[in-house]
TrEMBL record:
A Pfam family annotated for this UniProt entry: Methyltransf_23
Lineage of the species this protein comes from: Bacteria, Pseudomonadati, Campylobacterota, Epsilonproteobacteria, Campylobacterales
SUPFAM superfamilies: S-adenosyl-L-methionine-dependent methyltransferases
Gene3D superfamilies named in the record: Vaccinia Virus protein VP39
Species annotation: Hydrogenimonas cancrithermarum
Protein's name in the database: Tellurite resistance protein TehB
UniProt cross-references to CDD domains, sorted A to Z: AdoMet_MTases
Length: 184
C-alpha cells in the first residue's frame, strides 16, 4: 500500500536506522561465504553491505524509496522494490535468507521454500513481552515466545535465544535471534 511506502520514507527521514550489522549476522558471515542471499526488509543496507563486500550477491527487498536509493548504490546488491504486505513473487532459491527487525508471518512459507538445501536462515526480531519498552506497540508485529522454534522446526536450529536488548535510547525490548539450516 502506498501509505506504507510513505510511512517508511518518513521513518527513514526522521529516524535513520542503525548502520551497524547485527552480531547474529557477523557471527555467520564466514559460513555464508560468497553465496546468493535474500535480505527481507533490507532497510538502508546494514546487512547487505558486509555481505556484498565479501562477494555475495544480495537481493535486497525494500518498499521505501529512500532505502531503495541507498541499496542501489551498493555494488553486488540488487534492490527489489516490493510491498511485502501485498505479495512476494520470488522465483529464485538462496544460500542464505535474512530477516531482521521485521515480521510478516505470511513470509514463513517463502523462507522455507526459497532456502536451498544447506542454506542458512538468520531471523531476528522483537518478541511480545509485558516488560518491552522499545518494541513495536502492535502485537501483530511481535513474535510469540518460542514462535520461531515452532514455525521453523523442519530446519536444523543452530542457535536460538530470546534475550533483552537495550536500544540506543535506553529502552529495553525482548528480541528473538535464530540461526537455522535447511538440511535437505
Amino acid at each position: 500500500m502506498i501509505e506504507d511506502k510513505i510511512k517508511w520514507n518518513d521513518k527513514y527521514k526522521s529516524a535513520p536506522p542503525a548502520q551497524k550489522p547485527s552480531p547474529l549476522l557477523l557471527a555467520y558471515l564466514e559460513r555464508i561465504g560468497r553465496g546468493e542471499v535474500l535480505d527481507i526488509a533490507a532497510g538502508m543496507g546494514r546487512h547487505a553491505k558486509p555481505l556484498a563486500a565479501q562477494g555475495c550477491h544480495v537481493d535486497a527487498i525494500e518498499w521505501s524509496d529512500l532505502a531503495l536509493e541507498a541499496l542501489e548504490k551498493i555494488p553486488g546488491v540488487s534492490a527489489i522494490e516490493m510491498d511485502l504486505e501485498e505479495a512476494c513473487g520470488l522465483k529464485k532459491r538462496y544460500d542464505a535468507i535474512l530477516c531482521f527487525n521485521y515480521l510478516n508471518r505470511n513470509l514463513y512459507p517463502l523462507m522455507l521454500t526459497h532456502l536451498k538445501p544447506g542454506g542458512l536462515l538468520l531471523f531476528e526480531t522483537f518478541v511480545q513481552d509485558d516488560a518491552n519498552e522499545g518494541a513495536p506497540g502492535n502485537p501483530f508485529f511481535l513474535l510469540e515466545k518460542n514462535e520461531l522454534l515452532h514455525v521453523f522446526c523442519s530446519l536444523y536450529i543452530i542457535e536460538y535465544k530470546e534475550s533483552y536488548i537495550r536500544k540506543p535510547n535506553g529502552q529495553k525490548a525482548l528480541m528473538a535471534s535464530m540461526a537455522a539450516q535447511k538440511l535437505h
